[in-house]
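C-alpha cells for Pirin family protein. Go.
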Amino acid sequence: MSNPEAKPDEVICEGRQAAGVELMEPREVPLGGPRAMPVRRTLPQRHRSLIGAWCFLDHYGPDLVSESGGMEVAPHPHTGLQTVSWLFTGEIEHRDSAGNVAMVRPQEVNLMTAGRGISHSEVSTPGTTVLHGAQLWVALPDADRDTDPGFQHYAPAEVAGEGWRAHVFLGSLLGDTSPVTTFTPLLGAELVLDPGTTLRTPVDPEFELGVLVDLGSVSVGGVDAKVADLAFVPPGGDELVLVAGDEGARLLVLGGPPFGESIVMWWNFVGRTHEEVVEYRAAWQRQITGPDGNVVPDSRQVAPGRFGVVPDQPLRPIPAPGLPNARLKERR
C-alpha cells in the first residue's frame, strides 16, 4: 500500500528496549482526499519506530466500500523494504512492475520485496463490499536493501488448540512454521481467542513483539489492550501470555530481534541518507513525467527505469509529494 499523505513525515527509525509492556495507541490517517479510506497507524511513532524489522503498520476497517469508495491505490514506488498485506475481509488485486498479478484474500499473505526499486498498484475488487485488514512494511537490512524485487504468496493452514486458532504467515509460532523468505528473522501470525481464553505460547527471547488488537480485547503480559492498540513486548522473555476479554479477541502478533540499524523513511522510500531519498524521488518523477512536463495520465505510459512499469494498469501513477524545506536528517 502507498503512503499517499501530501506531507509525509520524515522518520529516523531506531530500535529501543523498554522495561515492560508498552501500550501504543494509533493515529488516524486518511489515505488521500476527503472521501478517502481512513487507516489507524501505530507504527512508526515518535517514541518507537520499529518492532524487529517491522517499520510501518496501518490497520483499517471494517469499512463499507459504498461509503469509503474502497481501495484504489494507483502505481507508486518503494525502495529498501518488503510490504506485507493481510486481510480479514474483502479482496484486493495486486499488480507490480516485476510482472506479478495476485489477489490479496483473507488469511493469505502477500509479501512484496521492493529491494532496489519496484512499483505496484492495489485495487479492491468489484465484488468487495467490506474492506478490513492490515498493511505492514519490513525494513531490509543494509546488506540486502538493493536486492532484486520479488513477490511471494502463502496461504497458511489453520492450527488450533483449546480456545484458540491461528494462522502463522511469517516465522514460527505454536508449532507451525511459514516457508516465506525474509531477510531478517520475523514473526507474523493471526490469533483468534475465545472469550476468557488464556494462551501461553513459547517465543524467541531475542525477539521484541507487537500485539495488534483487531477485535475484542486482550491482556498482554498483564497490560490491557483494546481494539487498534498495539502492545509492545520487549525481548528477554521466553513466553507470551495472552488473556482474552469477555468478548474474545482477534490479534496480529508481530516480532523479530531488534533491527540494529537506523533508517530514514520518507513517503514510500526506506533509505539511509538524505541524498538517497532525494534520488529515489527524482528517479520516480523522471519515470512518470511526460515530454510535456506533466505526469502521464496512464501508468502504461510510464518510462522504463529503477521502478519499472506496472503492466496493464491504466490508473494515473501517484506523483511523489514535495520534499520538506530542510535537509532530511541522516543517522547520528
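The chain has one domain: 11-17+24-256.
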